[in-house]
Amino acid sequence: MDYQALLERIAQDVAGHVGSGTPAEYIPALASVDPFRFGMAVADLDGQVYGVGDWQRPFSAQSITKVFALALALAHGGDSLWEHVGREPSGNPFNSLVQLEYENGIPRNPFINAGALVVTDRLQTLTGDASSELLDFLRQESGNADLSFDPEVAESESAFGDRNAALAHFMASYGNITNPVPMLLDHYFWQCSIETSCADLALAARFLARHGLRADGSRLLTRSEAKQINAVMLTCGTYDAAGEFAYRVGLPGKSGVGGGIVAVVPGHCTLCVWSPGLDARGNSVAGVAALDRFTTLTGLSVF
What we know:
By secondary structure, the chain is an alpha+beta fold. The chain has helices at 3-13, 28-31, 65-77, 98-102, 113-127, 130-142, 151-159, 162-173, 181-192, 198-204, 206-209, 223-236, 242-248, 285-298, and strands at residues 39-44, 49-53, 59-60, 148-149, 194-196, 253-255, 260-265, 269-274. It has a five-stranded antiparallel β-sheet. Strands 3-5-4 form a three-stranded antiparallel β-sheet. The longest helix has 15 residues, at 113-127.
């Protein structure tokens, strides 16, 4: 497949969507990002990467990092993770407190904020340094040793992180958080602040298209575990718009409020698209449109 020509076609087709939506205003460091930025990259199974637009420009990965934290927690700790977090769509906003009380402090899935806090808590227990473990993994899989945290974004997250603190304390009251909440929040905010490009994320996510195999050929996850993550991405990866995303795009995907979306075509390739303008549910307007065009033009999906 001529991925380069395909990406150039997609960029032309979705140009009218670029600039639509609004950058994440509740995180000051993200609110000022130019909404007319657009980039998209595809990485094949062998690590060849193709791109268009701002595909090599770093942006704030935000919740996309939850995919990689989940993979590391499963790799280090196995299926015991699922005793602490569910695998069902939430149907509520990503930072909602509502379901936690009804469900005794067990978050619905690892991609809403409560679930991601549980995953980070488990990874901290298993490794002793969750955020650094995650950054090192992304550097290795992307081949970019310069990937780093963004202190300004981490500070913004911390300064406006009261809802996340409430979620963590609430789950701790049920015994579902084991590390001190301030330490957990610190690792979580640094995790979300990682700056990457579309190229970096497409390359780093290849283990999900390669059924658990890392870039060096070693196995991170079993085929079953890789399938589990892809399944949860498909059903839960785009906040409370996951059903619409599955209907339109038909691929496992994970979005972030920095405007990025990572998607996986198992056995074929991985993609990352970035455009900062978000819809009401926190997903990139142009990003969803671009992935929709990708599956329409190629016929590649999990269905």
